[in-house]
Design goal:
The protein is built from 15 helices and 7 strands. The chain is globular. Bound molecules: S-adenosylmethionine (SAM). The site of S-adenosylmethionine has 22 residues, from helix 2 and strand 2.
């Protein structure tokens, strides 16, 4: 099995957003193949520290193999939804200077047919980022009720033929359960002739199943408040999303933290009562056309950055 490279997205923008302090303490919550981590390490002194997390064992094996000689770096296999449990005490005591989330899947996950993420490669319907997760896509497709299939395709894929596709899957699995990515892609193509230019009709359903299997949106929602707590005042949080469902969670979280506490509408509230916890830095950033030309997978990326504010005494 060869490991394809992952071209990191918005690297310069991320590095600038994190304002790397040479002696700082950083977290790359989605190590992947370490594209961003290497750029962070290149700017750290011998006193700086970087932790890399990933829920995919292949990413962590790669981290160990490629960065094992670097005493500034340590890595852990974990979901970023469990930051409170996995970050070493030193990170909590000292506070982090910056945290990066580069959400979604890596190129090796997409490109390796046996991971089952892509309808372009024939492989088992797996789609687990964390190989210890007992729920594969094949198992979910074999067991889920029709209404759940429909709901997931609609909510996580914004798929307009969700009902038809769910029905076709139920019918198919009475004959033989779906086993491979190409079987599923062919079935979707038969019943949902999407005419979105440049998009395979299975794109949305594959995205939806992946989000469901990996609990992607729940993990992001759980991780952001923990990340904020781990930052020092002045520490930066940078999040790259790849679709609107992810981005909405990030945007709403940033907005709420920047606005501060909620009060009943009829209460007169002064600015100093609000207690905002974050300041939004700049406008959301998207890749340049030059980056998209070099790396088409960057095309839907959007980077949001915020800074933790001093808490009131
Ligand atoms: C887009 S890739 C990151 C690529 C990385 N920035 C690089 O340059 O190589 C996203 C990575 O996040 C990991 N990931 C996704 N959700 C995660 C979660 N909840 N916890 C930990 N890692 C996660 C995936 O396994 C994948 O390796």
């Amino acid at each position: 099995m060869t490991d394809s490279v992952h071209e990191p997205v918005l690297v310069n923008e991320v590095i600038e957003a994190l304002r790397i302090q040479p002696n700082g303490f950083y977290l790359d919550a989605t190590f992947g193949r370490g594209g961003h981590s290497r750029q962070i390490l290149a700017r750290l002194s011998q006193l700086g520290r970087l932790i890399g997390l990933d829920k995919d064992q292949a990413a962590i094996d790669y981290a160990h193999a490629s960065l094992k000689g670097d005493h500034r770096f340590s890595s852990f296999k974990s979901s970023f939804a469990k930051l409170d449990d996995v970050l070493p005490q030193a990170a909590t005591d000292q506070g982090l200077d910056g945290i990066l989330f580069d959400l979604g899947v890596s190129s090796p996950q997409l490109d390796q047919a046996e991971r089952g993420f892509s309808f372009q490669n024939d492989g088992p319907l797996d789609m687990r980022m964390d190989q210890a997760n007992p729920l594969t896509a094949a198992r979910w497709l074999a067991d889920a009720e029709e209404f759940e299939l429909r709901k997931v395709f609609r909510q996580y894929g914004e798929e307009r033929y969700a009902g038809r596709i769910a029905k076709a899957i139920i019918k198919q699995r009475q004959i033989q359960p779906l086993q491979t990515t190409t079987q599923l892609a062919a079935l979707i193509k038969q019943v949902a002739p999407t005419k979105e230019p440049g998009k395979h009709p299975a794109t949305r359903v594959f995205q939806a199943i992946r989000i469901r299997i990996n609990q992607e949106l729940q993990d992001i929602a759980a991780a952001l408040p923990q990340a904020l707590n781990k930052l020092k005042p002045g520490g930066r949080l940078a999040v790259i999303s790849f679709h609107s469902l992810e981005d909405r969670i990030v945007k709403q979280f940033f907005k709420k933290q920047a606005r501060g506490d909620d009060y009943p509408l009829d209460l007169p509230v002064t600015a100093d009562m609000l207690n905002p916890r974050m300041k939004i830095i700049g406008k959301p950033l998207r890749p340049t056309q030059a980056e998209i030309d070099l790396n088409p997978r960057a095309r839907s990326a959007i980077l949001r950055v915020a800074e933790k504010m001093d808490s009131r005494p």
